[in-house]
Design a protein that fits this description.
With 351 residues, the chain is α/β, with parallel strands linked by helices. It has a domain at 1-94 and 219-351: Rossmann fold (3-Layer(aba) Sandwich). The chain contains 13 helices and twelve strands. The strands form two sheets. Strands 6-7-8-3-9-10-12-11 form an eight-stranded mixed beta sheet, with helices on both faces. A four-stranded antiparallel beta sheet has the order 2-1-4-5, with helices on one face. The radius of gyration is 21 Å and the shape is globular. The two termini are 21 Å apart. Bound molecules: adenosine-5'-triphosphate (ATP) and magnesium ion. Adenosine-5'-triphosphate (ATP) binds at residues 16, 18, 23, 25, 43, 45-51, 61, 64, 281.
Length: 351
Amino acid sequence: MERKSILSVKDLTISFNTFEGEVNAVRGVTFDLEEGETLALVGESGSGKSVSTKAITQLLPKRNTTISKGEIWYHDQDLLKTSSKDMKKIRGKDIAMIFQDPMTSLNPTLTVGRQIAEPLIEHQAMSKQAAKTEAISLMKKVGIIGAEQRFQQYPHQFSGGMRQRVMIAIALACHPKILIADEPTTALDVTIQAQIIDLLKELQAEFDTSTIFITHDLGVVANIADRVAVMYAGRIVEIGTVDEIFYNPKHPYTWGLLASMPTMKMEREDLYTIPGSPPNLLNVPTGDPFASRNMYALEIDFQEEPQMFKVSDTHYAATWLLHPNAPEIEVPDEIKRRNERFATILATKGE
Ligand SMILES: Nc1ncnc2c1ncn2[C@@H]1O[C@H](COP(=O)(O)OP(=O)(O)OP(=O)(O)O)[C@@H](O)[C@H]1O
Ligand SMILES: [Mg+2]
């Protein structure tokens, strides 16, 4: 099916000026978000997931951030060149965000109701009364029981899961075109996590929101994503449909990542461990930054960073193993076995 892109990130390159030097956090990230899809961003801690997505709505600290290259197209504007005044209008109305810890995003001194109603008044030009009615209906929609009473309450009177529901209500209040969810369930316990994921799935179907979903839980990815982008050391190293990434991964990093990540339901023992650790982004090594951890690394991996090789129209991976002259290497059995657990999730998806 031919799909239209709603957001187009091109060659995004971001560094931070720190005491130790220049941290090369994002090194040429390119991807499209298609209309109505959920794109999952995965990768070890520090791979640049949050930084890449924060750039979209200009949430990076001005003080020490340098965006040296790149474009982020939303309709006919480059969001990197949008004034902070215009970005304020886009944020919340067109592009909404949910983060891991709702307590830091909510204002502790304002009632929850007011915080849900505010964007409706600001972006939708609703009257105070209309905004209140709409806010209460949103609270009900995200599963907050006793919404009329709870409208008057403050964030600290809500549990973690309920606060995240409030954040979702705020995010969806203005029917944004794009939702960026950065580990929205990480801080919650497992049962609540599952409820929030189901809620997000439902709302996404209802509003047809295009979503970027960052998570460390590959069970969640298998469950909700249409496509997956795998990040490593500030780059996307593999991107494809959820089936391509889970059933036919091409990058050795993706093999290891899939086998090493716990799922919501899976016991943690028997997980694979990728040897070594991600490179220091102050001093990105020559060649493929994954080379020193890659048991299939070729000589060229230590000399030149691979560009994306095409696997299918929707599937690309940046590994020299895809070069026509590279030796043919199969996904190791040990890795395959651990990745089989995703098959049931993929098979029962959408039921
Ligand atoms: N404000 C900042 N100043 C300096 N370095 C930063 C800043 N923000 C992020 N970084 C660095 O940029 C790199 C990418 O960070 P980012 O937060 O995007 O990782 P992530 O993939 O979201 O990881 P996690 O899974 O832990 O959330 C890391 O090395 C991080 O330390
Ligand atoms: Mg992050």
